[in-house]
Amino acid sequence: MTLSSLLPPLTPLKEVDQSLRDDGFAVVSALDVAQIAHVDLNQLQNLTQFWDDLPRDPYLRDGGRYRFRRHSSFEIKGGSLAMVPHRAHWQSVNYNALHGGIERWFEPSQIQLTSNPAWKSLLLGLAHVLNGLKQVNTWFVEAHQFRIDTTDGIGRPTPEGAHRDGVDFVAVFLLNRVGIKGGETRIFDTGGSAGLRFTLTEPWSLLLMNDERMIHESTPIQPLGPHGYRDTLVLTFRSNGFQDSPNRSQQ
Which CATH number is 2-238's, of 2.40.30.10, 3.30.565.10, 2.60.120.620, 3.30.420.10? Predict the structure, then answer.
């Protein structure tokens, strides 16, 4: 396997489709993300405030206190976006050896966020891009708001290690980096023949991946000041329904 250390290999907007087809991923600048969403970049940047109000993740099995998150789920059909009733986030152990096999009921995303026109435009814009790669009747979308902090000295964006998510496509947005080092993104072809590593630093830049082809992880972060943190938004797009526990519960 060859592993290259690179600055983010930005994909021109007109080449995003082809990059996803040929390479399994694309890295998109914030300005191009705004074009995908058909909004001004400052409208996306205004959404970042909602990451200041994330509850601590109560499910970390490594004993850490470094992750804060919210979760919401949507269906996109045609040009229509609909939020579904709040549901647990569930993954099988095949995709998450650390936290798989358990229902994780995170606090829902703030209504002020999910009702924001820029939020809706972002999800619909991404769905439009993905429809050019795979024609589906309905996209089943999960949205994860993450803050990883360094209060205890180190924060782990992906404590489960390098992984796939068991979906069709994964979109990882870097929203903010404050007083930290680390947080390097690493992606690998599932064939094991090639890999890239780079650090996303531009707020609202995007790593978009074909989850069937790419394995991904982010390295731990360490503080450079008294309160370091890294904010991300992860959107997953699945074409054959949500991943649910075989013993699904209601809340």
Answer: 2.60.120.620
